[in-house]
Every structure is written in C-alpha cells, then in structure tokens.
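#help-structures
NK: newbie question, is this the right format to request a structure? protein is Division plane positioning ATPase MipZ
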Amino acid sequence: MAHIIVLGNEKGGSGKSTTSMHIATALARLGHVVGGLDLDLRQRSFHRYLDNRRATAERKGLDLACPLILDLPDASPEDLPEGVNIYDHRLSAAVAEQESRCDFIVIDCPGSHTRLSQVAHSLADTLVTPLNDSFVDFDLLAKIDPETYALKGPSVYSEMVWHARQLRAKAGLQPTDWVVVRNRLPAQQMHNKAKMGRALEELSKRIGFRVAPGFSERVIFRELFPTGMTLLDLRDMGVERMNISNVAARQELRDLITALNLPGVTPDF
C-alpha cells in the first residue's frame, strides 16, 4: 500500500508546490514509484510543474525520474449513492486506483479550506505543513498574545488536522505523522527567527507535530519551475560546477527528506 504524503497549508505562498515537487522527485530519483496529485483545481501549480518536467525530458531527450501525474476520476452525482459527497468519492477513487501501484502518493492541497483538502488530511500517513518563518504565517497554527507571544489556543487549521486525526483513529489507521516545515528561513540568526523557533517548539508539544527545517529563500526555485527541474537535476541541465548556494540548497533538501523519516527511504543523493 502506498504511503500517502499530504502537503497542507490554508495560506498561499508558503512554498507548498515547490516542496511537493522536490519531495516527489527526490523519492522518484531514489527508485521509488511516486504518484503526484494536485487538489488545487484552479491553480494546479504542482500538476503544471510535473507536466513541465515531462515536457523538458521529452524535448531534450533526458532520462529523468518522473513522478506519475495522477488525476481525480470523473464522476456524476447521479451515479453516486444518496449522501455520498462527490469530492470524497473522486479523491478516494483516485487513491484506491493507484495505492497498490505506487510506493508513495504526494498530494498537494490548495491554499484554502476545501472539502477535498479536508478529506486528504484524513488520508495522510505523513502531513507536511510548509510555513513561512514569520508570525504572519504562525497564525495558521495558533493564536498568540500580541505582547507576550504566549500561546492562546489552536487555529482553525490545527483543529481541522485534529479532526482528521480523529477520523483516522476511528478507522483503525496509524496516526498521522505531522511535520511543520520552516520555509524561507533567514540566513542570519535574527531575533524573530529565534522567537519563531521557541513558539513552534512549545506549540509542537501541545498539539502534536514535529518541526523540520525547510528551504531558504532562493531565486533558483523560481527559475526551475518552467522546466520542471529540481535541485537534484542540475547536472542533467548541464551545470558542471554548482555554486555555494546550489550546494546549500541540495543539503536543505537532503535534511528535509531525512527529517520526514519516510519508510524505506535513505536520502543518498
């Protein structure tokens, strides 16, 4: 059965699709069969990233490890039993069709609250929540006191994750491993960065997630999207000598894959 990795964050601009693509491609390059499913039916950034990768491989004759592009199957409300939600049905059918074929299925959720996103969170064996390293985005996880930065309570997103975990428990499934990934980390040891770290560590103990390092702000991520390439494909792109920034970015990806602690995965790239 496929291990399902869900990328979830109800705020846009946190690097979800970039993180989804690098996780999926890293696993594919390590020899695993990986399916990629984009639940943002409007933007479809993850899906387009995967499309761009296949187009580049075909155009340049490259033998690239490519995740499979998965789609939600079509369904008509008239064909469903009474009371069955069409989005529940389509997502469950998409996963059921591929879970015996894939080692991993990476699901990228939209940056908003949708029924599809709710269902995906209940399917997650591993939930990855990329978070920009600022208190603007910390609000996604919890409410804080504006003067003392003391935690006042969980956010609506954290409560949604809690309900998804309850559904898994009732179904007799293994608990979701929730990993909050700190993206766009500043290079310097800034005061705000340290406060964010302390707040996340305290909150992690209260609502049950792990904290992992993510990606720093780098121009290369924006440059890679049109070609569908990732940090692991630079030599395939003809880059003979990587600069210090590229080497550091690859190390960040290696650290992230290691932190996720996925079954059967050794990030030897």
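mod (FA): yep, format's fine, and the tokens are attached above. The CA atoms of residues 184 and 216 lie 4 Å apart.
NK: thank you!
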